[in-house]
Specification:
Layout (H helix, E strand, L loop, with lengths): L36 H18 L1 E3 L2 H10 L2 E3 L4 E3 L2 H8 L6 E3 L8 E3 L5 E2 L7 E4 L3 E4 L2 H13 L5 E3 L13 H12 L3 E2 L7 H14 L9 E6 L4 E2 L1 H12 L3 E6 L1 E3 L7 H22 L5 E4 L2 E5 L4 E2 L4 H16 L4 E4 L10 H16 L4 E3 L4 E2 L4 E3 H19 L5 H4 L1 H7 L9 H5 L16 H6 L5 H15 L7 H17 L8
Parallel strand pairs: 1-12, 6-19, 7-21, 9-10, 11-13, 13-15, 14-16, 15-18, 18-19
Antiparallel strand pairs: 1-3, 2-3, 4-5, 7-8, 16-17, 20-21
Helix pairs in contact: 1-8, 3-8, 4-5, 5-6, 5-17, 6-17, 7-8, 9-10, 11-16
């Protein structure tokens, strides 16, 4: 089925976030290697020893069958698999180093791997929050508004992930409503849950209604979370096998809280992360050699005084940087996270921790940076105000990474000679010709003097973000969707919603 191209949102005075072109930033310098080659090799070797001697639990019969046929050491009673390096390394070598992820609008296709960054929104939040209504259980209306914001700002390259759980929709039907809303309200790349086998099967069926044949480039995908330490549960394995078999994307991502799900030292946490990822990557290739798969890193310390995750720390920055090195060692695209914070509100703590997540992810050469907008409250809440604050940061990263030009025109020696010592450049032809485009056009920053700021209402950044997300929703225009496709999606959702009442989704 032919894909459609969308109209650009109406330019809106005072909202430069709406005018950002869709492009993937490409860092002008190689990724930063934190570890020496020898230290990286020690982590690699430790990971192989974990896989060969301790092993990984795979709580799914089909997964055990795949490993047994491949020649791994399978203990079916314990459901544990030990993987020799001579099996593991040739198997992961069939995974692609890069791939194109198709969007409904071809102009919004995303390339994963090869040096370009892609930013995705937060996902999996149970609560939504804004300054008007406070924190409350997420609803379908909240989810749809977050889709509209994700579609409108091209600093985000993905529009549809489960930015918030629609708790007013029955559990059995949530995935159906999410996918339909993603196609109605966006034309960017769609991600949908890889949970069990029923949800991926429905997702793939709805993708075929929009894209037709799925034997080409991938059109959907999702995170496969390892149940650390060293265990893949039935739900995640069902999703991994279903998506890999269909040639769709999986992000193999342990969620390791060092000190709880791994030893407290970062060296041990990273060795365990690497073992868990490599086992999952290898399984995708046993299912379908060449299936697109991403090396995922989400290792961070636990707050040993409280038992809660600690985000935006120096230790999590080390993990992000070394995760990128490890992914490059195996020729795999790398997924990291940015915008992470434990703060309960969009305050200075949230800003500091978020940037301590984003900067290491960018320096690490991360190909896909998830949770880049909206994350709050340790991942329990999506904040509309923080969503906008994060979008501004992503836009600034895009501007920064594009760099600046050095040529005769940019050096402006004639303008320097014209003004000479002691003058100013505000009125020169050189400045006037570049007045609108010379610098990053902020949407949120307030640079007035104190008296002018007070006279304008004395708003802080979160209050200004509140105004901006409402203005963005007011300016939103849905991308076109073929009426026949829309009707087919409606029919599918209605039929499956009836069939799935009281069905266990994760079987």
């Amino acid at each position: 089925m032919a894909r459609t191209r969308s109209r650009r949102p109406r330019p809106t005075v005072g909202l430069p976030l709406l005018d950002i072109p869709f492009r993937q930033p490409r860092p002008p310098r190689p990724p930063y290697d934190w570890l020496s080659a020898d230290d990286l090799e020690r982590i690699h070797t430790a990971s192989l020893e974990i896989l060969e001697t301790v092993g990984i639990d795979f709580l799914d019969d089909e997964a055990l069958d795949l490993w047994q046929r491949a020649g791994a050491h399978v203990d079916r009673t314990a459901r544990r698999v030990r993987i020799d390096r001579d099996l593991l390394l040739p198997t992961i070598a069939t995974a692609p180093a890069s791939f194109r992820w198709r969007a409904r609008n071809p102009a919004h296709d995303v390339v994963i791997g090869g040096g370009a960054l892609a930013f995705g929104p937060c996902g999996g939040m149970a609560y939504a929050a804004d300054l008007d209504r406070g924190r409350r259980p997420g609803t379908m209306a909240d989810y749809e508004n977050l889709l509209r914001l994700s579609q409108s700002c091209h600093a985000l390259h993905f529009a549809a992930w489960e930015q918030v759980t629609a708790q007013d929709v029955p559990v059995s039907a949530r995935h159906l409503h999410r996918v339909r809303a993603a196609f109605r309200l966006t034309d960017k790349v769609v991600m949908e849950a890889a949970h069990g086998r029923v949800i991926p099967a429905d997702t793939l069926a709805m993708m075929r209604l929009v894209y037709g044949d799925l034997d080409g480039d991938p059109v959907t995908g999702d995170v496969i979370n390892v149940n650390s330490p060293l265990r893949y549960d039935e739900r995640m394995l069902g999703g991994l096998i279903s998506y890999a078999r269909a040639g769709q994307v999986t992000f193999i991502t342990p969620f390791i809280l060092a000190g709880a799900m791994s030893p407290v030292t970062m060296a041990a946490a990273l060795a365990q992360q690497n073992a868990e990822v490599l086992a999952g990557v290898a399984l995708t290739q046993l299912v379908r050699p060449g299936a697109p798969v991403i090396y995922g890193g989400f290792t961070t310390p636990i707050d040993l005084r409280r038992g809660s995750p600690a985000f935006g720390t120096p230790e999590s920055a080390w993990a992000a940087l070394v995760g990128g090195q490890l992914a490059r060692r195996y020729g795999l695209p790398y997924r990291g996270s940015g915008g992470l914070t434990s703060s309960q509100t969009a305050d200075a703590q949230a800003a500091n921790e978020s940037l301590w997540s984003l900067w290491p992810a960018v320096l690490a050469g991360t190909d896909l940076i998830m949770h880049a907008a909206g994350w709050l409250d340790g991942g329990l809440t999506v904040s509309f105000e923080k969503f906008i604050l994060d979008l501004e940061n992503l836009a600034m990263f895009g501007h920064f990474l594009n760099g600046f030009t050095i040529d005769d025109d940019a050096l402006a020696l004639d303008a320097i000679a014209e003004v000479g010592p002691g003058g100013h450049h505000l009125g020169t032809d050189h400045t006037q010709a570049r007045y609108r485009t010379a610098f990053f056009p902020t949407t949120l920053a307030d640079r007035q003097g104190h008296d002018a700021w007070l006279a304008a209402g004395g708003q802080d950044a979160a209050q200004r973000a509140n105004t901006v997300w409402k203005a963005m929703l007011a300016a939103y225009e849905p991308p076109p969707l073929d009426p026949g496709t829309a009707e087919a999606l409606d029919d599918y959702v209605a039929g499956r919603e009836r069939e799935l009442t009281n069905v266990r989704l994760y079987d």
